[in-house]
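If your schedule permits, I should be very grateful for your opinion on a structural question. Please examine both parts with care and let me know of anything in them that strikes you as inconsistent. The record follows directly beneath this note:
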Amino acid sequence: MGLVYACDCKRSDIERIAAGKQGWPRDPDGSPLYPGTCRVKPRRKAREVLAKGGVALRLDMRMASTLAGQGLMWREFGALPRAERSDPAASPRDDGEGRLVPADPAEWGDVVLARKDTPASYHIAVVVDDALQGVTDVVRGKDLFEATSLHRLLQRLLDLPAPNYRHHGLVLDEKGEKLSKSVASTALRALRAEGWTPADVRRRIGL
């Protein structure tokens, strides 16, 4: 489809460019948007790029959004973690069966779909995997709410069905950070060993 291009830029390169310009746009996760340095270079075949040690493959968001067309939305059954946009036409609508939330994948810029050490990004992997397994309802943390815009774009480009979504609140620590194995957060097993009861845990997470 001509929507993917090779990128040899490193994260440090992007950070350096963003640091040099005040007000550089950032994606919903807070990372600076890719400036498109490699977008204008001659397109090379994806497999050839990775085989020769290329850094990453990126999605040309402008081309992808144009090809996907208008009216990209998803059906949300959870609480909306973001405020509705000022444009009434772009605000989530409740039709009695969840809310129709307008997708805005452009907020992510030219996202990485594959790296030399990762054959598929989370975004492309989860979209394809859900479709292959016939998933109809996705329940996940609200930290992935904004990523749904990107997932809906990929689903349309790949002609895959759109599941329903429910994004739930996260279990946070005393500092308001989400509990995660990646940062060695205290596990339930450790809390039980310290004498915590189920009621203590429910109070801790606001239930």
